[in-house]
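It would be a great kindness if you could assist me with a short task in structural biology. The matter concerns a single protein, recorded as an amino acid sequence and a row of backbone structure tokens. The record follows directly beneath this note:
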Amino acid sequence: MIPWIIKQYFRLQIKFLIVFKPTVLFDRINHLSWYKNMLHQWIDNQKFVANSKILEVGCATGSLTRHLAKLGHTPTGVDYSSKMIDLAKTNHFDINFSIASVLDLPFENASFDAVIAASLINIVSDKSKAMDELFHACKKGGLVTVLVPSSKFNDHNLDSLQASLMISGFSVSALEAWHNLAPKMDANDILNLFEEAGLTKVTTRKYLQGMVISITGIKP
């Protein structure tokens, strides 16, 4: 009985944060080990050239942007939410953050060595336009990579993943909420977006036992 009550408590806490304090929720999730490790693995797999100039679109509160800076890169973070950017600037005052929409990025063409976006393409209304913006912001020969929840990940997979991660409390509820609430995409649909945008040598990877997929392409 007590474990059930505890689980319901954290589920209600997640729902409250989604409605009333999404900035706090994003910041807390960014510090959960399973989420942070996944993002870091995604970045490590890209093998960015040393001292790359990287644009993170949909940076939220800037935790991953900070990680890029620690790796020796020069990151810029943008997010549509002014509250997210305010917190990002407060927490990471030495990094360049600004308010911007992925549908209208305020940068000249070919401004960055790499452009990244986590959990963004799956939620925007005009995915083709968003991909075009990511493409144009990237230099020739640079990387564009996105990370999204996979449509092939189901409830049975979630049970297996939770057991393997050995997590509890808020962390379990956050993983469960992301699985249930975040829009998901099929890898083939993202591959088509990459090809339509003009990206080449497109590759895919899986994270968190297939819960999340990344698609990476090169701007020719």
In short: The CA atoms of residues 61 and 87 lie 6 Å apart.
